[in-house]
């Protein structure tokens, strides 16, 4: 654990301050598009004194008052590839949302895909000092978790307690005030490539914005696309974006696993561009209007005008059959789904009581995907759309906006994480973490 710990604590403090002022923005930095939503909070945030530990802790009513999207530039595989291009795209999206909201925002909560996420399950246990569980006991048991060696250049993005147990009673969501002798916890830790996070922090700072929170795109998509029963009984959310496909598994309303596949809708577009020898913009248009993964006898006769403006009369008036287009798209879509299946198998998804899979994200809108996916992933597959959020424009209610909408819900009521508790400095397993807490207390 390094200095991301006190950065996360500082970002939580900024989020609370921004919510008390009433306005905060969420920023979805994707490979295909960058979206910005401005949220206005109708009432002050209810702090943790009256709320439990879990995904609904500290909830507050909000509505979307500004929305803007722009084509993403400088982002590849969900990671920043060209800093200046990404900065310009973020400024464009934020300015458009501010103009619609007719207000200025200084604090944003960002989400991103990629960065090679890895999940770890940690466990800790402590004896209770006073008979009943207090906030200090929760802090001590979180600090008692044995942290593995994540490897050099890795940072913790999420560190969420997902299950508490007192003596032999397990499955507790909020143990505070309960009486027992021994408190145990299971914690899910998600680590990412530290360089990707630092690049994101630097880029947002260059846009004259303060980062008030950061989340995994797969986590945000799961929050918005999975209904309550799916989150409770066990389900996987597959967020099919432009440059990366995020995977998250939820059970008991907590994320217990996340991963990413470095393939997405842009790779399908690239295959079309190479197969038909057309520019990427033309390939994207053809994919959107005529794409699919199932060919019928009708598709052999349906001709698609490729069009173009190269000046070559013959070349600009070429046509291809729709079945030929599907023949290019289907192998890549199957490859993405097979990679996802391998990740789910490695995570032990087949042992969950309910094995519902929800596909969301822009690339999930390819016609016929709902028929192909069950053959590769399993029987219970559906296409998910994000939950309706008050004030959200109609254009931003599709599956492509699952991460952005999930980020709104994450901003309004984030799940409690490790850094939300005052963990005693002498309890830290790592010297660098002890130094981080001392620095935070002395300087914040």
Automatic annotation (TrEMBL):
Give UniProt keywords alphabetically.
Answer: Cell cycle, Cell division, Cell membrane, Membrane, Transmembrane, Transmembrane helix
User: InterPro entries, alphabetically?
Assistant: ATPase_NBD (IPR043129), Cell_div_FtsA (IPR020823), FtsA/MreB (IPR050696), SHS2_FtsA (IPR003494)
Q: Which GO terms describe its cellular component?
A: cell division site; cytoplasmic side of plasma membrane
- What superkingdom heads the lineage? Bacteria
Q: How does it sit in the membrane?
A: Peripheral membrane protein
Give the GO terms filed under biological process for this record.
Answer: FtsZ-dependent cytokinesis
Q: For this UniProt entry, which segments traverse the membrane?
A: 21-41
Kindly state the subunit structure of this protein.
Answer: Self-interacts. Interacts with FtsZ.
Q: Which family does it belong to?
A: Belongs to the FtsA/MreB family.
Q: What does this protein do?
A: Cell division protein that is involved in the assembly of the Z ring. May serve as a membrane anchor for the Z ring.
Q: What is this protein called?
A: Cell division protein FtsA
Q: From which source organism is this entry?
A: Maritimibacter fusiformis
């Amino acid at each position: 654990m390094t200095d991301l710990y006190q950065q996360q604590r500082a970002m939580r403090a900024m989020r609370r301050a921004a919510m008390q002022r009433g306005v905060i923005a969420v920023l979805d930095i994707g490979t295909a598009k960058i979206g910005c939503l401005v949220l206005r909070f109708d009432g002050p945030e209810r702090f943790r004194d009256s709320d439990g530990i879990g995904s609904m802790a500290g909830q507050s009513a909000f509505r979307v008052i500004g929305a803007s999207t722009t084509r993403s530039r400088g982002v590849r595989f969900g990671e920043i590839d060209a800093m200046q291009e990404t900065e310009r795209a973020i400024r464009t999206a934020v300015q458009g949302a501010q103009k619609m909201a007719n207000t200025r925002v200084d604090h944003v909560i960002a989400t991103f895909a990629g960065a090679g996420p890895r999940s770890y399950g940690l466990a800790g246990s402590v004896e209770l000092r006073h008979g009943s569980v207090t906030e200090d006991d929760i802090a001590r048991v979180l600090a008692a978790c044995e942290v593995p060696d994540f490897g050099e250049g890795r940072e913790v993005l999420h560190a969420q307690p997902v299950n508490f147990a007192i003596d032999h009673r397990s499955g507790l969501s909020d143990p505070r005030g309960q009486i027992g002798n021994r408190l145990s916890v299971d914690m899910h830790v998600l680590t990412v490539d530290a360089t990707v996070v630092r690049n994101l922090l630097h880029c947002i700072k260059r846009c004259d914005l303060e980062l008030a929170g950061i989340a995994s795109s797969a986590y945000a998509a799961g929050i918005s696309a999975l209904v309550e029963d799916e989150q409770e009984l066990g389900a996987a959310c597959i967020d099919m974006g432009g440059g990366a496909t995020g995977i998250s598994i939820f059970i008991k309303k907590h994320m217990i696993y996340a991963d990413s596949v470095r393939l997405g809708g842009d790779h399908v577009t690239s295959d079309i561009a190479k197969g038909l020898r057309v520019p990427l913009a033309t390939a994207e248009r053809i994919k959107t209007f005529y794409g699919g993964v199932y060919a019928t006898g009708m598709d052999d006769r349906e001709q698609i005008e490729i069009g173009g403006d190269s000046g070559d009369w013959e070349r600009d008036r070429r046509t291809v059959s729709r079945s030929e287009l599907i023949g290019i798209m289907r192998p890549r879509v199957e490859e993405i789904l097979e990679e996802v299946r391998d990740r789910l198998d490695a995570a032990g998804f087949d042992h969950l009581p309910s094995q519902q899979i929800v596909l969301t994200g822009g690339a999930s809108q390819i016609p016929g995907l709902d028929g192909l996916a069950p053959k590769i992933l399993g029987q219970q597959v559906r296409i998910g759309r994000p939950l309706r959020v008050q004030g959200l424009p109609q254009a931003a209610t599709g599956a492509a906006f699952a991460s952005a909408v999930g980020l709104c819900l994450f901003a309004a009521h984030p799940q409690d994480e490790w850094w939300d508790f005052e963990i005693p400095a002498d309890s830290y397993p790592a010297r660098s973490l002890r130094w981080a807490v001392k620095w935070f207390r002395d300087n914040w």
